[in-house]
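User: Please fill in residues for this 148-position structure.
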C-alpha cells in the first residue's frame, strides 16, 4: 500500500514542481501550462480512485486502530479540500490564465501552500495505516536469522 501511495505522491509532486517552474516564467506558455494542469488532474484522479478503492476500505476495516483513525480523519477533510481545488480550476480556465498571468501565478502559489501540508498530512496518515495493516503479519513472521 505504501509503495503505491508513494508512486502516486511522487508523480503528483513532480507535476506540481513542473507547474511551479512554469509559473516562474515572466510570460505564460499556454500549451505547457495546459499540459501540466491536465497531467496534475490525471494523477489526482488516479490517486482519488486508488484511495477510494484501496485505502478507504482498509482504513474502515482498521478504524479501531490509530492508523485507521488517522486516515479516516484525513478523509473527513477531503470534501472541503476538493472544493478548494475545484474552485481554483473553475476560476482559472486557460483563457483567464493568459489574460491575467500575474494573478494566476499568485493564486497558484497560494494553492500550493494549501496543497503541500495536505500531502504531508496524507503521508503521515497513510504510513500509520500501512503500519497497522502490516502489524499482524509482522507478529507471525519468525525473526530474521543472522547469517555468519
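Assistant: Residues filled in for all 148 positions:
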Amino acid at each position: 500500500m505504501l509503495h503505491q501511495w508513494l508512486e502516486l505522491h511522487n508523480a503528483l509532486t513532480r507535476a506540481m514542481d513542473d507547474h511551479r517552474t512554469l509559473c516562474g516564467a515572466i510570460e505564460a506558455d499556454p500549451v505547457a501550462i495546459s499540459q501540466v494542469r491536465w497531467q496534475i488532474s490525471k494523477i489526482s484522479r488516479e490517486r482519488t480512485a486508488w484511495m477510494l478503492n484501496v485505502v478507504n476500505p482498509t482504513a474502515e476495516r482498521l478504524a479501531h486502530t490509530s492508523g485507521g483513525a488517522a486516515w479516516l480523519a484525513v478523509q473527513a477533510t477531503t470534501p472541503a479540500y476538493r472544493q478548494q481545488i475545484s474552485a481554483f480550476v473553475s476560476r482559472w480556465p486557460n483563457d483567464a490564465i493568459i489574460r491575467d498571468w500575474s494573478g494566476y501565478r499568485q493564486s497558484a502559489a497560494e494553492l500550493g501552500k494549501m496543497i503541500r501540508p495536505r500531502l504531508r498530512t496524507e503521508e503521515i496518515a497513510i504510513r500509520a495505516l500501512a503500519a497497522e495493516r502490516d502489524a499482524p503479519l509482522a507478529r507471525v513472521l519468525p525473526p530474521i536469522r543472522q547469517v555468519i
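For context: The first helix runs from residue 2 to 23.
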